[in-house]
Design goal:
alpha/beta; 5-stranded parallel β-sheet; 5 strands; 5 helices; globular; about 180 residues
Length: about 180
């Protein structure tokens, strides 16, 4: 079990590679299908339930430009799987090549404590936190558009912009009172 390293392989010409990590695979496939339809750049999508990735195809695996952890906020297993997978990423990925995408945040049964835990995790790692609606085609299209923007920068396809710069602009921050009890 080795760490996934961002700069171990050379990038492909006009190509961006994204790894979608989701333990439940509910939103992963529809998002992957929408990402592949991008015409301006070649997008290769890799899917995984968790990290580490298998060693047997390590040599043929392209360089991963962006790792996206998809977390279903109504599922404790989804959060735990993403949290456990983080230790298999090289620290270089946390310089603008990791983001978290939360689904089902509007669900009434979503515990606010878990949403706060995801926000704290993203803020502690200085990673962007995106929210997506996975039940509608418009929600998938919107999530795809936001991910493509981040992916193009992380892959080096946007001139004069780096993944670290974009990460500083889009990272998740916590309000000072996040640990205070809610009065709702």
């Amino acid at each position: 079990m080795t760490l996934l390293k961002p700069f171990r392989k050379l990038p492909g010409l006009n190509t961006a590679n994204i790894l979608l990590v989701e333990s439940e695979e509910q939103f992963q496939q529809s998002l992957a299908d929408a990402l592949v339809e991008e015409t301006g750049v070649t997008v290769n999508v890799r899917l995984a339930k968790s990290l580490p990735l298998p060693m047997e195809n390590d040599e043929s695996r392209p360089r991963i430009d962006l790792v996206v952890f998809i977390i279903n906020v109504t599922s404790e297993l989804s959060f735990q799987s993403a949290e456990a997978s983080l230790k298999y990423l090289d620290p270089g990925y946390f310089l603008g090549k990791v983001c978290f995408m939360v689904t089902n945040a509007r669900n009434v049964s979503a515990p606010t404590e878990r949403l706060d835990a995801v926000r704290k995790l993203a803020a502690s790692l200085h990673c962007p936190l995106l929210f997506a609606e996975d039940k509608t085609p418009d929600g998938v299209a919107s999530a795809t558009e936001r991910l493509l923007t981040i992916l193009k920068v992380a892959a080096g396809l946007v001139p004069i912009t780096t993944a670290l710069y974009l990460s500083n602009l889009t990272r998740c921050t916590l309000p000072l009172d996040i640990d205070q009890p809610s009065f709702d």
